[in-house]
Amino acid sequence: MAELIDGKLISAQIKDECKEKVALLKEKGIEVTLAVIQVGEDPASSVYVNNKKKACEYIGANSLSYNLKEDSTQEELLKLIDDLNSDDKVNGILVQLPLPKHFDEDEVIRRINPDKDVDGFHPINVGRLSIGEKGFVSCTPAGIIQLLKRSNVEIEGKECVIIGRSNIVGKPMSMLMLRENATVTICHSRTKNLSEVTKRADILIVAIGKPKMIDASYVKEGAVVIDVGIHRPDPDSKKLCGDVDFESVEPVAGKITPVPGGVGPMTIAMLMSNLVNSVE
């Protein structure tokens, strides 16, 4: 039976650490402020935005909310970002994605000052990560590193296989694991004999967006399995699942993240960590 990696517990520890840092900054007269921009009324986006506001409140940071109408123009959004970039009271800027289809997301992300880009999506921050400079790292991969370290998983010298090559998880995850001195392999939809590659992994990180695709036949005995996926298997079901078939893999793995309660809570915790670090 695998040991469960408790993302709720670890994310709470990180938020508490952020809370302490914010209190110390306040003693020096320094406020921490996150600006969140949402375009339109997408229900899932509204939930995420609300969770980010609650997290700010918890750690003692200020949050500013900007709600633009669905039919706002690219120019209106870019003007708002420019205003927030030049506002010294704002430490972090976050544009809730996805944006309505008539927006150019790439241009929007590039417009945010890289030193206020607490999501870690700006090409400059991605470049900083790839050459080992300090900068913001996208929150999900940064959270996975914390899950591993705080669960006493040795990374150095271990074989790590990442399934998925997205700009938000797969690619930054590979660079973070390299930074921790793991030997890294990235797999994707064109990888041949996938299970042969994944069975070499001491640490298997799954971010493919396919419900329960990875079962025990892909996993080495005793491996650490990190499941980034989150799905509702059918519209009426209240139960969530990940990219990993938990029931199949859990008896084989050494440690495993559940869904929900694994990687998910870490994303907002690391957003708060990036926000507090932005003050520096």
- The outline comes out as globular
CATH architecture of the largest domain: 3-Layer(aba) Sandwich
- Based on secondary structure, the structural category is alpha/beta
CATH topology of the largest domain: Rossmann fold
Determine Rg (CA atoms, Å). 19 Å
Number of strands: 9
N-to-C SSE series?
EHEHEHEHHHEHEHEEHEH
Q: Which blocks of ≥5 consecutive residues have pLDDT under 50?
A: none
CATH homology superfamily of the largest domain: NAD(P)-binding Rossmann-like Domain
Neighbour order of strands in the largest sheet: 1-9-8-7-5-6
Query: For the residues shown, what is the average pLDDT?
Result: 96
Distance between the termini: 43 Å
| Number of helices, counting only DSSP H or I runs of 4 residues or more | 10
Percent helix range? 25-40%
Q: Tell me the number of structural domains.
A: 2
Query: Strand portion, in percent?
Result: 5-15%
Question: How does this model look, in words?
Answer:
Helix 1 runs parallel beside helix 10, helix 6 (139-150) packs across helix 7 (170-179) and helix 6 (139-150) packs across helix 10 (264-278). The chain is built from 10 helices and 9 strands. The mean pLDDT is 96. The chain is globular. The strands form 2 sheets. It has a 6-stranded parallel sheet with strand order 1-9-8-7-5-6. It folds into 2 domains: 29-115, Leucine Dehydrogenase, chain A, domain 1 (Rossmann fold); 139-263, NAD(P)-binding Rossmann-like Domain (Rossmann fold, 3-Layer(aba) Sandwich). With 280 residues, the chain is α/β, with parallel strands linked by helices.
